[in-house]
Amino acid sequence: MSNKPLNGIKIIDFTHVQAGPACTQLLAWFGADVIKVERPGAGDVTRSQLRDIPNVDALYFTMLNSNKRSLSLDTKKPEGKAILEKLIKESDVLVENFGPGALDRMGFSWERIQELNPKMILASVKGFSDGHHYEDLKVYENVAQCAGGAASTTGWWKGEQSGPMISAAALGDSNTGMHLAIGILTAYIGRQQTGKGQKVAVAMQDAVLNLCRVKMRDQLRLDKLGYLEEYPQYPHESFSDVVPRGGNAGGGGQPGWILKCKGWETDSNAYIYFTVQGHAWEPICDALGKPEWKTDPAYTTPKARQPHIMEIFATIEDWLKDKTKFEAVDILRKFDIPCAPVLSMKELLHDKSLRASGSIVDVPHKERGSYVTVGSPIKFSDLKPEITGSPLLGEHTDEILSELGYSKTDIANIHAAKAV
Ligand code: COA
Fold it and tell me: Which residues of the chain have pLDDT under 70?
């Protein structure tokens, strides 16, 4: 194996579903030895969830567990506990995202882990932070989106489609895992200074809230002003005392919207996102063939445009009606206008640039033949993560036991006790 920055870091990956696995997968790409500990017989629940091929690990699992080794271990059996203890003594990090209290019930409280290995970094994902009035709750993605402010601020504010809306992006799961990865690396660097491990935790609610920081900004502005000038409700509709859902509004200082392009009647993704960046107003007027807007006082400043911004978008939509989303972007990019086509998953899957950059990769797999996965979004000048297939359940059990010093006879006895 070529040298990678995280080579030598040994991680016990006691994670399941998405939030924890996304974190440890990232660390594995960058060179950590990630040992996925799974219940014998079943393993991570995602191995069998939403399968596309009978009796073969589901994509849900393969896309979140590449570059790892799998150790099947029943940590509720004494033999299993003894193996986990040995592993804890020899590892740097233990990552887990069990329901509240599960690790303690298993006999591996933070105190016990520290006794076993004072250098250990224990990294946890929970739905809510320690001491929170909801700390006992189990949490999945959409629950976190609701608890962290994303759902109340996403979607339509009026009409039949109004009501809180969940994002398809895994703001609760993978996003929390990415925060945890930063926490783990920080604790690891801290340990180099102090010689001591520490507990790192990220609550899904907090990770969602961190991404909703700008909506908290808006609440504070609304409290002060009573209105939010960049929201579609301004100036013709009234505001209540909470941040409203803003549909597809820009959300920052630049108004924007999703606009229909040629073919929208039959293609559900024939749209672009168009941003009216303040200083790009003149190029926008040139691109749209509306030079008169450059001097008309109703259009020259963002403040003047805001009351009729939807009419401006309607005019742009009219300009777009004989252009596909790709043709439109090709014209607009020449004018330096921030915009992009709305891309479907199918288009992303076949995007040549994403393949070339390694953001979408083909990975060999023992039972599937190969599978496509989303590669590292983080690019380095001196590291090209090589994505390797996810492990089969227990594929590396004997190998890991023997690395821990168990003899062939010991391993046979461990199998006989059904601890692995
Ligand atoms: N051997 C033996 N037992 C094992 C084991 C192993 N290798 N691995 C897990 N278990 C046991 C645990 O000890 C626990 O048992 P207990 O409840 O008797 O103490 C049980 O399996 C797992 O419990 P839990 O994590 O609560 O699973 P769940 O399926 O009921 O809940 C979640 C799933 C995701 C809701 C829950 O884990 C959770 O809230 N996690 C924290 C937040 C999170 O990460 N959510 C997002 C997931 S994408």
Answer: 1-2
